[in-house]
Design a protein that fits this description.
This protein has 391 residues and is of the alpha/beta class. Helix 2 (52-64) packs across helix 10 (300-311), helix 5 (188-198) crosses helix 7 (241-258) and helix 9 packs across helix 11 (334-346). 39% of the residues lie in helices and 19% in strands. The protein is globular. The strands form five sheets. It has a seven-stranded parallel sheet with strand order 6-5-4-7-12-13-14, with helices on both faces. It has a two-stranded antiparallel sheet with strand order 1-15. A two-stranded antiparallel sheet has the order 2-3. It binds nicotinamide-adenine-dinucleotide. Nicotinamide-adenine-dinucleotide binds next to helix 2, strand 5, strand 12 and helix 8. Residues 48-54, 72-75, 87, 111-113, 138-141, 225-227, 268, 270-271, 273-276 line the site of nicotinamide-adenine-dinucleotide. Monomer. Keywords: Fatty acid biosynthesis, Fatty acid metabolism, Lipid biosynthesis, Lipid metabolism, NAD, Oxidoreductase. Pfam families: Eno-Rase_FAD_bd, Eno-Rase_NADH_b, Enoyl_reductase. Residues 319-382 form the Enoyl reductase FAD binding domain.
């Protein structure tokens, strides 16, 4: 047992500690945002279930779509000096939520890229559920070790071709700062490594492993998350090294489809997550987008409800010409993009406080670590040693 007051310490968008009670509240707030419903029992495997879109998909699935199954995340426990990661605390609370909702849901803390994890999870599915109906692949990782070669690949956030200088958002204390960041072009090796980490290879391996063990139900479908975004972020995101990996992921869906698997990518909209806040320019873009859209900006939980509705057949799939499920249409309308473009072009250090929703963005970043969550007493001591849920 180890109780203490936890304060935000860190630099930029990265914090060293997470607030356990804040993370609990984040999970409860997500659950409160969906309409509870008793649905038929469906079994899902969610990879990347502790954070961002994967967490929202897990909670929407548990609270509104009656899923049982397994969530996989890769999180760190508390040490003598540091708290556990936010995803650890959120997982502990999501497990409580699942139990309260009467769901049979287990969380595995392990590297999804490893064959040992696949074996462990497949054994669990075979023992506990027999077959699965849905596989959601929502991993965002900086590196991957391929267990078959032992080689480790690093994902790069680089352009393709020429360097690109983007406006970006930073903070001096709580004050927004407009900065410029130059992103270098990827080498061929950077590109190949990024595709290895964030492309479709591991997703396809999961599907193949499940198929080999005969663990796919008759109406099985699988979705991996992708992003397109605005041409403002295009040179760094979609036309950059990460975009090459997303193109590979989308191609994997088409290949799996040809093999008879109901495989899709879902194009989600911009959201503030640990993964996205590391990308130069994305923070500024997202805060301008939020200023434009206000509360009509679709949250990850709203998009997750829409995704479940589509993959369970409750509503028709909103597919584009490349067979991708589009959850991001609200982001890319010409009205929204015209407004965000105008703000992006004109924003200066003098106008950033007016043009960007920087307070919202700052609070969202802190919320990723359980800070700035309304209703939480940050002066109180909290238990930081929280066990990983076992079920
Ligand atoms: N954030 C956005 O704006 C946005 C928009 C559209 C699509 N997406 C996509 O959504 C997906 C998830 O991204 P996010 O932004 O929610 O990220 P995130 O950082 O919030 O979550 C990443 C998740 O992956 C898990 N993870 C990381 N490495 C792992 C490993 N080796 N084994 C098992 N689990 C691992 C983490 O534990 C966490 O649960 C990505 O494919 C991303 O491209 C994100």
């Amino acid at each position: 047992m180890s109780e203490r007051v936890v304060k935000p310490v860190g630099r930029g968008f990265l914090f060293l500690d997470s607030h356990p009670a804040g993370c609990v509240q984040v999970v409860r707030d997500l659950a409160a945002a969906v309409e509870p419903r008793t649905a038929e029992r469906r079994v899902a495997l969610v990879i990347g279930s502790s954070s961002g879109y994967g967490l929202a998909t897990t909670i929407a699935g548990l609270a509104q779509f009656g899923i049982d199954g397994i969530g996989i995340a890769f999180e760190k426990d508390a040490t003598a000096r540091r708290t556990a990661t936010a995803g650890w605390y959120r997982t502990a609370e999501t497990a409580k939520l699942a139990e309260e909702l009467g769901r049979d849901f287990t969380f595995v803390n392990a590297d999804a890229f490893a064959d040992t994890t696949k074996d462990e999870v497949l054994d669990l599915i075979a023992e506990r559920f027999g077959k699965i109906d849905h596989l959601i692949y929502s991993v965002a990782a900086p590196r991957r070790t391929d267990p078959r070669t032992g080689e480790t690949y690093q994902s790069a956030l680089k352009t393709i071709g020429a360097p690109y200088t983007t406006k970006s958002l930073a903070y001096d204390g709580t004050e927004p700062q407009l900065t410029e960041v130059t992103v270098d072009p990827a080498t061929d090796d950077d590109l190949a490594q990024t595709v290895k980490v964030m492309g479709g290879e591991d997703w396809a391996r999961w599907v193949a492993a499940l198929q080999e063990r005969d663990l796919l139900s008759e109406d099985f479908n699988t979705v991996a998350l992708t992003y397109i975004g605005s041409d403002i972020t295009g040179p760094i995101y979609r036309q950059g090294s990460i975009g090459a990996a997303k193109a590979d992921l989308e191609q994997t869906a088409l290949t799996l489809t040809k093999e008879g698997i109901h495989a899709y990518t879902s194009v989600n909209g911009a959201a503030v997550t640990q993964a996205s806040s590391a990308i130069p320019g994305i923070g500024l873009y997202t805060s301008l987008l939020h200023k434009t859209l206000g509360n009509t900006m679709q949250t990850p939980i709203q998009q997750s409800v829409s995704l479940w509705n589509q993959i369970t057949g409750a509503t028709p799939k909103d597919l584009d010409e490349d067979n991708r499920i589009r959850l991001d249409r609200w982001e890319l309308t010409s009205e929204v993009q015209t407004e965000v473009h105008a703000a992006w072009q004109s924003v200066t250090q003098n106008t950033i406080a007016d043009l960007a929703d920087h307070e919202w963005f700052y609070a969202e970043i802190r919320r990723l670590y359980g800070f700035d969550v309304p209703g939480v007493n940050y002066e109180a001591e909290v238990e930081v040693d929280v066990p990983w849920p076992t079920r």
